[in-house]
Amino acid sequence: MRKITDKFYQVLGLCRRAGKLVSGAWASEQLIRKRKAELVIVSSDASDSTKDKFLRLCKSRQIDIVFIGSKEELGSCIGHYARTIIAISDKRFKAMILDALPDTLKANMGVIDEWQK
């Protein structure tokens, strides 16, 4: 699924180097609960219960969420083996990431979600 665009993965790597993201379920959930997350990225191959949990967390706090990429792709672009969940804490990086996403993703009540289609 490398057709997502290399720019998307490059921006994620840049975001990690700038220290503006956390990865992993626990760290991402903490950032969401503190309302410091601007965007949450969940891998497309995450379990349905993980997708549901983070979708509910993000919708209740009006945080954008997108389901895209594989665990391996998300992990490798930020220098890890595999990552299911990434939370972005900077508005400018969020805008850069959203610009790099395909136009097929639609905004739905403040939550971007391809998985629910």
The tally of strands reads 6
Strand content: 15-25%
Oligomer: single chain
As residue ranges, the low-confidence spans are none
Number of domains: 1
Question: What would CATH call the architecture?
Answer: 2-Layer Sandwich
- Rounded radius of gyration (Å): 12 Å
Tally of contiguous helical segments: 5
Distance, first to last CA: 18 Å
Strand order of the largest sheet: 1-4-2-3
Mean pLDDT: 85
Q: What is the top-level CATH class? A: Alpha Beta
Secondary-structure-based class equals alpha+beta
Shape: globular
CATH homologous superfamily title = Ribosomal protein L30/S12
Quick description:
The chain has 117 residues and is an alpha+beta fold. The protein is 44% helix and 16% strand.
Task: Write up this protein.
With 117 residues, the protein is an alpha+beta fold. It has a single domain, classed as 2-Layer Sandwich (60s Ribosomal Protein L30, Chain: A), CATH 3.30.1330. Helix content is 44%, strand content 16%. The chain is built from 5 helices and 6 strands. A 4-stranded mixed sheet has the order 1-4-2-3, with helices on both faces. A two-stranded antiparallel ribbon has the order 5-6. Helix 3 links the parallel strand 2 and strand 3. Helix 1 (6-17) packs antiparallel against helix 5.
